[in-house]
Amino acid sequence: METVQTNTMTTAVSDLAMDATGLDDQASFERHLSASTLPTVWKDWKIEFWRKFQDLPMPKSRDEHWRFSKRIDFELSSYQLAEKPSEEVVAEAVKRSNVVGALSGRFIFVDNFLVHRDNLDEETLSRGVIFLPLEEAFEKHRDLVEQYLFQESTDLGSEKFHALHNAYSETGYFLYVPKNVEIEKPFVVDHWQSAPGTATFPHILVIGGENSRFSVVDVHQSLFDDREGFGCSVGNVFAESGARIFRKTVQNYNEKSVAFQLDTNNVDRDTSVRGINLNLGGRRSRFENEVRINGSGADVKLYSLTIAENDQEFDQRTLQIHNAPNAVSDLLYKNALMDHSRTIFSGLIKVAKDAQQTDAYQTNRNLLLNETAQANSLPGLEIEANDVKCSHGATTGQLDREELFYFLQRGIPKTIAQQLMVFGFFEEVIEQFESAEMEENLRELIREKFAKKQLQAVASA
Amino acid sequence: MNETEAIDIDREKGNFRYDVEYEYDAGTGLSEETIDYISEAKGEEAWINEFRKKALKVFNRLPMPTHWATKDLENIVFENIRYYLSQGQVPSRSWEEVPDEVKETFERLGIPEQERKFLAGVEAQFDSEAAYSRMQDSLEKEGVIFVGSSEGLDKHPEIFRKFFGKVIPTNDNKFAALNSAVFSGGSFIYVPPGVKLEQPLQAYFRINAESFGQFERTLIIADEGAEVTYMEGCTAPKFETSTLHSAVVELVALKGAKIQYITVQNWSNNVFNLVTKRAWAEEGAEVKWIDCNIGSRLTMKYPGVVLKGRKARGEVISIALANDGQHQDTGAKMVHQADETSSNIISKSISVGEGRATYRGLVQMPEHLKGCKNNTECDALLINTNSRTDTYPAINVQGEGNSVQHEASVSKVSAEQIFYMMQRGLSEGEAMSLAVNGFVNDLVRQFPMEYSVELKRLIDMEMEGSVG
After folding, report:
1. Is B288 a residue whose pLDDT tops 60?
2. DSSP string, B183-201
């Protein structure tokens, strides 16, 4: 185990960050750029992305991709890049990075700084696996990294935030598992926010070579409950033919934070790609997840579980694109809502002309636990091939009164019964994490969230 | 009459037109002068003229909805459209008084014959004005009003003004504003409390002139406990230039009333059919839209029900068939505004050749509503490899004990099914036609007999040559 105290690039940034104004400020960006020790080519990309960011308009809730988004109420100018965290903060972050115990390799980031790494063992390294912080990977495997770095964008509405991310992001990781390599234990990365008003930009590149098999876990959290933050992560998965990739993400920022998670999946033939999200935190969270199936025989599954309370808004936009025949994609997004929270699910299945024999499904289920909570669904289909099986379904409802009555008949108190029913609703997604340890840890996170509420707000039957 | 020679007969029933001498023609383009021309021709009161002029300003201000809708909308050239054409006719009360060429048009469409058989009342619109309007005397005695909208405004302003533009305000969308500026024709129906019409009322809309815009405005009010079924049919001949049909239909179902509104639309392939249809349903009232779209180049139509009173019910049953060069962008809106309201949407679409069928829906249940339900089912059938279908529902739910479910599926006609039917001696086209009729059969059964027969025939015609 090695705890990274510092590195040249991040120190330089931290010296200047103090003077920087908000993220969207030209001077702030220029200071960031001049402090950066990245190679010139990368700095040139940054300038390009910054221009793009400036050119793009801020989204409004009347934009089609932002329909039903009510709370685009944050100012980019209130966030900035943070200084290097103190040793106490680092120690706390390391201590609390415990969602996964058994792992192949791990990075812990705090406020964009790499503070801890568990490197891969010799055997894994000898099989050609690359798991490195982004900048280090670029330095050591430039030809390989360049094939994937900044190749993707989002088409789902957050183009401006994507450009902002690319302009600032230098931390994150590069994971490459070569042809025919199977790795049993997951790669795990913890992304923490600690300083007040911090903006973090985790950049995640996951590449599965032909017939590789592995899983990767990202956990986004805040170290303190009362400090505002802006987390904007971009994750790009590339699955080469036959690869089996499982990506698990947990978002548990504090309820003062604004979070963006802008993901893409490029999927080749006969691959199996699974993505699963547990979303608990953030004041405003936006998720964009795009799947492009470019090879036949691919099998993609997307799961998400969101638990919303108070004034939280979770805005989820997905796109399943079938460009190749004989592939399957299936999506299940579940939301449980309390208080004045809101969720938005907007999903689209697009089947191209040549993608015959596609099987594509999409399901959004919303459980309203309070009458003031609001669930919005926009499930969509755009089908241009005729020999397909495509369907979508969306339901919104409350806890079943008859079920509750049945519990009460059996002598189970109402609050316990309600809690059991709510966990029953979650379980279908939780068990998709397929790791007993992780499932139990996540259930605990959910219990914590509910303990605060004590389920008193659960709709009375 | 030498008119028969001017008839351009095609195998399609509605595709013929007459050369007509118009007494009134507002010319092409839209301005305040156009509106003054229409008002003068119709002898309208000043407030209507003002209403129209305000609407024109709203129309000019509102953008085209192309940020979400098809770009084909941009091909409408508003300056090239003729907004008012009429022969100065007042609606005839007897079939004999109708001008010959108009009469012949409607006879070819089979209207008097249908009326004799089963209709309680008929109104027929030719371009901008009602050409014929008749209702059974017994209904008139019960206080039922069924007249053209101009006559409604003129003779029953106390009822008309109360609801006119209330269900669909002028600024609802660009085309509702356009209709409000230049509306002409359409029906006005009032059914007094407790009166239940056993037989349907019918209107028929016909575009005869080239480059013409038809902007009928219909208002139907069913007073407390009243019941009425209204049916409309539309056709236009084929012209080289595109034609615009932009109607506004407002329905008001007061406490416990029932309204059923049935449309079978078969415009020709160059008609832009951009219609706004909405209903109010008060306590315990029921509104059912049966909407069937076969023709047109682009249809954009999402009949809606605003469920304003407790236990109100809204239903939309929609069938769309999109063939080559057609885009049927249809759907439904259900806006729940009271407790225990329920709504049901069933939409079936068939895309043939390069046709594109789109379902677009909106279901809204705001905060503090209790016990509301919605069920939505959308099924799309794709016939050919290059057919296309889309589904874009929007569901927005809050409140207590409300439940919403939406399901959509896309499928094709199964090869086994076709093979089986061909084994029994049907041609491939016949087999396909039978399969498609089977797909919509459970909905078609809800139509009055004449319409279901007509629909089956239209489907058969559309499916000819679709195989391969």
Report:
1. yes
2. ----EEEEE-TT-B-SS-E
Question: From start to end of A60-164, where are the E strands?
Answer: 105-110, 113-118, 130-133
Where b means 16+ CB within 10 Å and e means fewer, A193-204 reads: bbbebbbbbbbb
Q: How far is it, in rounded angstroms, from Cα A440 to Cα A448?
A: 12
> Cβ–Cβ of B405/A393 closer than 8 Å?
yes
Note whether B185 and B130 are within 8 A (CB).
Answer: yes
Q: What is the ipTM of this complex?
A: 0.85
- Flag whether pLDDT at B1 surpasses 60: no
Helix pair A40-55, A159-168: axis angle to 10 deg: 150
Contact assignment for B390 to A64 by CB distance below 8 Å:
no
The reply to whether B401 touches chain A by the CB within 8 Å rule is yes
In this prediction, residue B87 carries a pLDDT of: 62
Output the pTM of the full model: 0.88
Instruction: Kindly state whether A362 is in contact with chain B, defined as any CB-CB distance less than 8 angstroms.
Output: no
The β-bridge relationship of strands A113-118 and A105-110 is antiparallel
Q: Which of A379, A387, A397 sits opposite B403 (nearest CB)?
A: A397
CA–CA gap between residue B292 and residue B264 (Å, rounded): 5
Q: What is the pLDDT of residue A70?
A: 84
Query: What span, in angstroms and rounded, lies between the C-alpha atoms of B229 and B9?
Result: 33
| Mean pLDDT of all residues belonging to chain A | 92
Helix (H, G, I), strand (E, B) or coil at B158: helix
Judging contacts by C-beta atoms under 8 Å, the chain A residues touching residue B382 are 383, 385-386, 388
Helix (H) or strand (E) holding A152: none
Q: Indicate whether B120 pLDDT > 70.
A: no
β-bridge mates for residue B406, sequence order: A394, B376
- pLDDT higher than threshold 60 for residue A162: yes
What are φ and ψ of residue B466, in 5° steps?
A: -85, -15
Instruction: With beta carbons under 8 A apart, name residues in chain A contacting B404.
Output: 394-397
The SS3 call for residue A447 is helix
Higher per-residue confidence, B24 vs A408 = A408
> What amino acid is encoded at A143 in this protein?
D
In angstroms, what CA-CA distances link A366 with A219, A266, A304, B368?
24, 28, 12, 17
All residues at 6 or more sequence positions from B437 whose CB lies less than 8 Å from its CB, including other chains: B444, B456, B459, B460
Which distant-in-sequence residues (6+ apart) come within 8 Å of B423 by Cβ? none
Kindly give, in sequence order, each residue whose CB lies less than 8 Å from that of residue A95, ignoring residues fewer than 6 positions away. Answer: none
Q: Is B388–A389 a contact, with Cβ atoms under 8 angstroms apart?
A: no
How would you classify the pairing of strands B388-397 and A374-383?
Answer: antiparallel
Identity at A271, one-letter amino acid code: T
Considering only residues 30 to 69 of chain A, which have any Cβ-Cβ distance to chain B shorter than 8 Å?
63-64, 67-68
